[in-house]
Amino acid sequence: MQTDKLSHHLVICNKTKAQKQVTELPYYSKGIAVLKPDYQDVNISLKNWNAEETHMLIGRINQLYEEAAGLYHARTGESLPPVTVPRAPKPDKRQHIQSQVLVQVMETCGLLQTGVSYIEFGAGKGALSHYIAERTTAHHFLIERAPMRNKYDKLHSHTFVRLQADIADIDLKRVNLIGAVICVGKHVCGGATDLSLVSVLRSGVELEGAVLATCCHHRCTLSTFIGSEVLSSLGMSETEQMQLFKASSWGPSGAVRLEEGQEAVSMAKSEAGLKAKRIIDIARVLYLSDVGLSGRLFQYCDNSLTPENMVLVARKCPLPSS
């Protein structure tokens, strides 16, 4: 009887119907942007680690950061922004400010262009696309798997096209893109950054550039991560790479006061977490360099606005020196 009820519910469930509708979309292709579809990701946790294990991982991250920063400088000729632990409160309306600052970064890097197709990954309500559309005439394709209310699409009905599916499942070869492509995203969470880049690179479209504000590095996975070979070249095993992903969660929360005398420990963990995030993004930049793109990391705003304040920028031609 219970099985019959479940079967009946699945037939009438609105969520099931919506999921079925997505799979029938012309651009839907299950897992097409997953870099290693046959890889079985294993989840790990650092929560039960003792103080000695945590201290050893912090030391390993500090060492790896110096090595990765050296590779980054050798490839780009640029130094990384300093790692600073966030402490200040976050202001109101920060999401809109972040989008506006990202548009300024795009302009500085020559990626605010006319006649191109902007693809916003993890678009949400489309605020970033909205601010780009205010500055230049282009076509906008907004990828977001969740249905959204109060979207900015209504302000740009002739130039905004919304693609509702997971980034992993969108075949851009089946989307009627116009001109060269610039992919953008604000806080493209975890492996979604890698899925976004692989989606574009595998599609064969003319990629003019990318501006992706990365975040939530603890949600990266080895099946999607584009920088795994770079980390391997630094002597990191797959287990250590997964530990690096998890340790990155120590960073954004900033230093917190624990028991008396323990704030220094919290500071060390937070700084190591921020360095872990940088190492992951450096590996992404070096991967993009290997496939012929000029990549760079910028701190696009102060960490009082958001601790997730790094943006990965790439172009097919050299980026301007900072």
Could you characterize what this model shows?
The protein is α/β, with parallel strands linked by helices and 322 residues long. The protein has a single domain, classed as Vaccinia Virus protein VP39 (Rossmann fold), CATH 3.40.50. Helices cover 39% and strands 14% of the residues. The protein has helices at residues 2-12, 14-23, 51-76, 94-108, 127-133, 192-203, 228-233, 238-247, 263-290; strands spanning 117-121, 139-143, 160-163, 181-189, 207-215, 294-299, 310-315. It has a 7-stranded mixed sheet with strand order 3-2-1-4-5-7-6, with helices on both faces. Strand 1, helix 5 (127-133) and strand 2 (139-143) form a beta-alpha-beta unit. Helix 3 (51-76) packs parallel to helix 9 (263-290) and helix 4 (94-108) crosses helix 5 (127-133).
Which features characterize this protein?
single chain; 322 residues; alpha/beta; Rossmann fold; seven-stranded mixed sheet; 9 helices; 14% strand; globular
Structure, briefly:
This protein has helices at 2-12, 14-23, 51-76, 94-108, 127-133, 192-203, 228-233, 238-247, 263-290, and strands at 117-121, 139-143, 160-163, 181-189, 207-215, 294-299, 310-315. The protein is α/β, with parallel strands linked by helices.
If you compute it from the alpha carbons, what radius of gyration comes out, rounded to the nearest whole angstrom? 21 Å
Low-confidence stretches: none
CATH class: Alpha Beta
CATH superfamily: Vaccinia Virus protein VP39
Q: Quote the average pLDDT.
A: 89
Count of domains: 1
Estimated share of beta-strand residues: 5-15%
- Please report the total strand number as a whole number: 7
CATH A-level architecture? 3-Layer(aba) Sandwich
CATH topology: Rossmann fold
Sheet/helix structural class: alpha/beta
Classify the helix fraction into a percent range.
25-40%
Shape: globular
Please give the largest β-sheet.
7 strands, mixed
N- to C-terminal distance: 67 Å
Strand arrangement in the largest pleated sheet: 3-2-1-4-5-7-6
- Taken in chain order, the helices and strands follow as HHHHEHEEEHEHHHEE
The quaternary structure here is single chain
Continuous helix count: 9
